[in-house]
Amino acid sequence: MGSFGGLEWIVIGLAVLLLFGAKRIPELARGLGQGIKEFRKASDDIKREIEQGEQKQPKEPVNSVKHESAEPKTSQANDNVDK
Predict the structure, then answer these.
(1) In this predicted structure, what is the pLDDT of residue 16?
(2) In a domain, 41, yes or no
(3) Beta carbons of 25 and 16 less than 8 angstroms apart
(4) What pTM did the predictor assign?
């Protein structure tokens, strides 16, 4: 099963012409073109946002940042006083 040959494309084209009619095909093609244009624009916007986000990030590795625990630390000296 390889790619379509010339005869197959002609049959597919005739089937599309019979199903949709000559007046609807330009409208469908126009709508498809607008959809592709909007998709490309959205993907370009996402790529641009990702690139801008990468430029704003600090150069330090993420693992070097130490996070403090939310719980208060108690020392053993305080534990001995309470007893």
Answers:
(1) 87
(2) yes
(3) yes
(4) 0.47
